[in-house]
Amino acid sequence: MYDVLITGVRVVDGTGGPSYTADVALRGDRIAAVRAVASSGSWVPLGPAREVIDARGLVLAPGFIDIHNHSDLTLLVDPRAQSMVAQGVTTVVAGNCGFSVAPWPGPEGGPRAAIVREDAAFLTCGMKIEWDWRTFGDYLDVLASRGPAVNVVAVVGHAALRGQVMGRAARPPDDREMARMCSLLEDALQQGAAGLSTGLIYYPSCYARTEELVALARVVARHGKLYATHIRGEGETLLAALGEAVRVARTARVCTQVSHLKAESRPMWGKLEQALALLERARQEGIDIDCDQYPYTAYNTSLGSFLPPEVMERDWRQLLSLRAERQRLRQIMASGRPNWTSSIKGMEWNDFVIDGSGDGALDGRRLGELAEASGKDPFDFLFDLLLEFGPHLRVIGHAMCEADVELGLAQPEVMVGSDGFALPLEGELGNGFPHPRSFGTFPRVLGRYCREKRVLTLEEAIRKMTWLPARKVGLYRRGAIREGWYADLVLFDPTTVRDNATFERPRAQPSGVRSVWINGRRVVEEGKVLGITGTGRILC
After folding, report:
1. Could you tell me which CATH class the domain 65-297+400-473 is placed in?
2. pLDDT confidence of 358, banded at 50, 70, 90?
3. Is 145 left (phi over 0), alpha (psi -120 to 50) or beta?
4. Which residues face 7 on adjacent strands?
5. Is the CB of residue 217 less than 8 Å from the CB of residue 324?
6. Are β-strands 414-416 and 352-356 bridged in parallel, bridged antiparallel, or unpaired?
7. What angle do the packed helices 111-119 and 158-166 form, to 10 degrees?
8. β-strand 289-293 against 513-518: which pairing, if any?
9. How far apart are CA 170 and CA 245, in angstroms?
10. Residue spans per domain, the chain
11. What is the DSSP string of 290-341?
12. Which of 58, 25, 38, 109 is nearest to 514 (CA)?
């Protein structure tokens, strides 16, 4: 007897092939049978089941795989992952943008241990978390013990490696330091890390030269794992930064993923086509390099990333307290310089909205309006914010254009990733106005860009969310609907699926997602998030 029998459903199997009508049976944690309806309309019924679901008019797809996620710590606080499972996400890839919470040397590790924790502060979403692990394997064990609702793939962040070995030193590593970073990386990969990520606009990763990245990427390549990179610039330096990613991929011969590809700031609008062409030329050369994208025209980052990289190497609080230093920083941030451009250049102050201030007073407010109300120059207001709340104050930047979002989604090799967090629907975790991508990314693609705008077909959209990321990360028997594969599945109504989360009301559950199964266990039933845990697994 089957556990679940889904009858008369339109199957979009994840591979990009045409959909078909079938009955699908689940037993335990696997897809036990897939019986397609013949063109004549006849088929052999599958055997009895404890539960039968009439799914006529609905679509069954593999569970969505969020290839770019930051739930490293939120899953420890609340493992229900409600904002993710409500969308149909069954697997998240954490540890991105160079930030992971392991390895770290423990509380007795001194200043460098504190640096690793501080650099990952934005991952907490305002919650205080006890770090009761040291190695990457320890962290995965702690995460598994919390019983996350979603499957988790975790990569190790470059910031954790460099911060533990070099602190915030802006210089290249010496031979001993480079060997130590490679050793820590080797250990993490052997303990279950699925690869390495870099965040080259963030400290301390921004201090790494290409040669350092290549050395680490070669370690990743030996293990046959993934190198995911938040490149060194997504505004004026976009093409040069992409060129560096290609050089690392080519030299190290490493499987590479460019994170959340975008053309940021008004002067760059319309130039995403050049970036996509650069990646395509690299693929034609035989380089294994792809990218992902979220379906929004706004990003979410830390306010400290607006500052020139050298600031955080020094006593940044003292620097921002000096009038002369503020004037120097204002000029650099307004005009940029070779190989570095602040996110402020080419934008207006009201394009930036405070995500979480720590006390709620500024949440959802625009920087320009706040500065005007305070009677301060916008740069001085920004510097005062940093002094009061720290460099990890989160900000949403409305910096991309809709035409570039549509262009990226239309490309066959561009995957979908949220760049978000697993958060509760009721908002008990953290504070502020989180980016709506944590609640709506995948239904937004299906509703807005498939059904309404017809930027891509349903089959192609599902492929970008399932088969492609599963193959990129190297997941076993996930990412497609096939007999014997794991029962990570999402059942949705293609006529009503849509995101409801907005920048003004971000914590809103999407519509049209009827049921979600993770390893054969239901976590969403008739559109209701059940809030159960322990359904996910740690995947290596």
Report:
1. alpha beta
2. low
3. alpha
4. 54
5. no
6. unpaired
7. 160
8. unpaired
9. 20
10. 2-62+478-529, 65-297+400-473, 306-397
11. EEEE-S-SEEEEEGGGGS-GGGGGS-HHHHHT-HHHHHHHHHHHHH-BTTB-
12. 58
- The helices-and-strands tally (H runs, E runs) of the chain is 17, 21
Structure-derived torsion over alpha carbons of residues 119, 123, 124, 129, reported in degrees to the nearest 10 = -70
What order of strands is seen across the sheet that includes strand 195-199? 156-157, 195-199, 226-230, 255-258, 289-293, 414-416
Looking at per-residue pLDDT, the higher value among 457 and 336 belongs to 457
pLDDT one-digit tens code per residue, 312-354: 888 899 999 999 999 999 999 998 888 888 888 889 999 999 9
Residues 425, 436: Cα–Cα separation, whole Å: 11
**Residue 357 scores a pLDDT above 70:** no
What does the block give as tokens for 255? 């499987």
What residues pair up with 271 in beta bridges, in sequence order?
none
Q: What are the start-end ranges of the H helices in 66-147? A: 74-77, 82-85, 111-119, 136-146
Cβ(9)–Cβ(24) under 8 Å? yes
Phi, psi angle pair for 422, to nearest 5°? -80, 115
Q: In whole angstroms, how far apart are CA 271 and each of 18, 51, 179, 257, 446?
A: 32, 51, 39, 20, 25
- Read off the tokens for 466: 């399932």
**Domain 2-62+478-529 maps to which CATH number in 2.40.280.10, 2.30.40.10, 1.10.3720.10, 3.40.50.1220?**
2.30.40.10
Instruction: Supply the pTM of this predicted model.
Output: 0.96
Q: Strand pairing partners for 66? A: 92
Question: Which residue is associated with the tokens 């190989």?
Answer: 339
Q: pLDDT tens digit string along 84-102?
A: 999 999 999 999 999 999 9
Q: What CA–CA distance (Å, rounded) separates 27 from 333?
A: 58
pLDDT (0 to 100) of residue 104: 93
pLDDT at 312: 85
CA distance 516 to 59: 12
Sign for the pseudo-dihedral over CA of 278, 281, 283, 288: negative
Equal CATH topology for 2-62+478-529 and 65-297+400-473? no
Looking up tokens 């915030």 gives 168
Span between the terminal Cα atoms of the chain, in Å:
31
- Paired residues of 491 in beta bridges: 60, 515
Whether the CA torsion 410, 412, 413, 416 is positive or negative: it is positive
Secondary structure class of 155 (helix, strand, coil): coil
